[in-house]
Amino acid sequence: MLESASQNRRTFIKTVGLASAGLAVSHTTLAGSLQLPVPKRKLGRHAEMVSSLGLGGHTLATAKTIEDAIRIAHEAIDYGVTFFDNAWEYHDGRGEEWMGQALAGKRSQVFLMTKVCTHLPGNQGKAKALAMLEQSLTRLKTDHLDLWQVHQISSETEADSIFMPGGVIEAIEQARQQGKIRYCGFTGHLNPRMHLRVLAHKYPFDTVQMPLSVFDAHADGFQKLVLPELLRQGIAPLAMKTLGGNAGAVKAGVVTAEEALRYTLGLPITTLISGIDSLAWLKHNTQVAANFKPFTPGEKAALEQRAAEKKQFEPYRHWAYLDGHARHANLVA
C-alpha cells in the first residue's frame, strides 16, 4: 500500500523514554540526512490517496500556544501529512478552532476530517448532528469536510440508534447531498463488537477509526475482530491509540515509540492518526512513516509476545477513559 521511496532507508537514534505528546524527545538524525515525504495510501475502495500518518486534532490543541500548533500543522503539510483529524467536542471546540486557523490558506492541501458527537446525552438525532456540522465548518473555516465520522460508538443503543429514523445517518445523507461532506465513517475504542454491530447494517461507510496497536493483537482485539471485516467491505481502516492513548507502555519501557508506530503501519490500514504536540514529535513520527519498513514475521511475533497479556496498556477499553473534553451534556443550541 505504501508508495515506494527512492532514497535509502535511514536509521533513527532511539531516545529512552519516548512517550506521548508533551514528553521530551530527541529529533536528531544522521548528519546531512533529508526528510522524505510521508507516503500516501489508498482510501479503502476509493481512488483517493491520503497520507499514511495523520495529525490528531485533540493533541494538536494541547500545544503550548496556538502559534506552536500552527507551526506544527504547517510543517506537517511540508512533510507530506495530508490527513488532519478532529472532533466537534475536542477541548470544547478549541481543537477545531486552532486547526481552522492553522489551515487558513492551506485548506486545499489537506484531507480534513472531523467527528459528530451524537454519543453525548441530549445531542442525538439528525437536527443536532446538522447543527454540530455547521459549528464544525465555522470553526474549521471551510465550506466542506472531506470526511465526517460518527464519534465514539460505545454501546448497543448507540450502535443501533444511528440508523433509526431521524438519526445521524439521515444527517450524513443530507450533508452529502448538500456537498458539505465527501465521505463518512464512524469511530469507537471501547468494544470491537460494537463496531461489528454497526458494520452488520452494511451501510456504505467509507472509513472506520479504531484502536490498532501491538497491545491490541489479542483474540478480542480490533485487529482480529474488526479489521478483516473492514477489508471485506472495502472500508478504509483508520488507526488510533497506537501508543495506548497515554503512552504508558513507552514510559514503562515495554516498547519504543518507533516500534509501536512501525507495528501499526505494518497492518493493512490507510492512516495512522498520531497525537503530536511539538515539532520534535512531528519530526520523529513523520520520519518513521516516511522511512517505514515492516517488521519481518519473526520480529513482529517477538514484539507481540513482548506485549502479550499487558491489558493495562489498553486504557481506552474502559468506561472511565474519556476521548474528548466536552463537559456539558447538551452543547448544541
What secondary-structure arrangement, pairings included, does this model have?
Blueprint (H helix, E strand, L loop, with lengths): L39 E3 L6 E3 L1 E3 L1 H4 L5 H13 L4 E2 L9 H9 L8 E6 L9 H15 L4 E6 L5 H6 L6 H10 L3 E7 L4 H8 L7 E5 L10 H4 L1 H7 L2 E5 L7 H4 L5 H9 L5 E4 L4 H12 L6 H11 L26
Q: Could you characterize what this model shows?
A:
By secondary structure, the protein is α/β, with parallel strands linked by helices. Helices cover 34% and strands 13% of the residues. The chain has helices at residues 57-60, 66-78, 94-102, 126-140, 156-161, 168-177, 192-199, 222-225, 227-233, 248-251, 257-265, 279-290, 297-307, and strands spanning 40-42, 49-51, 53-55, 83-84, 111-116, 145-150, 181-187, 207-211, 236-240, 271-274. Helix 4 (126-140) links the parallel strand 5 and strand 6 (145-150). Helix 2 (66-78) crosses helix 3 (94-102), helix 3 packs across helix 4 and helix 11 packs across helix 12. The chain is globular, with a radius of gyration of 19 Å. Mean pLDDT is 87; it is low at 1-32 and 325-333.
Task: Describe the structure concisely.
This protein is an alpha/beta fold.
Distance, first to last CA:
43 Å
CATH C-level class = Alpha Beta
What is the architecture at the second tier of CATH?
Alpha-Beta Barrel
State the CATH superfamily name.
Answer: NADP-dependent oxidoreductase domain
How would you write the strand order of the largest sheet? Answer: 3-4-5-6-7-8-9-10
Helix residue percentage? 25-40%
The major pleated sheet works out as:
8 strands, parallel, barrel
* Rg on CA atoms, Å: 19 Å
Oligomer: single chain
| Beta-strand proportion | 5-15%
Separate helix tally: 13
Q: Would you report the number of β strands? A: 10
* Whole-number total of structural domains: 1
Which residue ranges are poorly predicted, with pLDDT under 50 across at least 5 consecutive positions? 1-32, 325-333
The chain-level structural class is alpha/beta
What is the overall pLDDT average? 87
Topology as a string of helices (H) and strands (E)? EEEHHEHEHEHHEHEHHEHHEHH
Shape: globular
Indicate the CATH topology: TIM Barrel
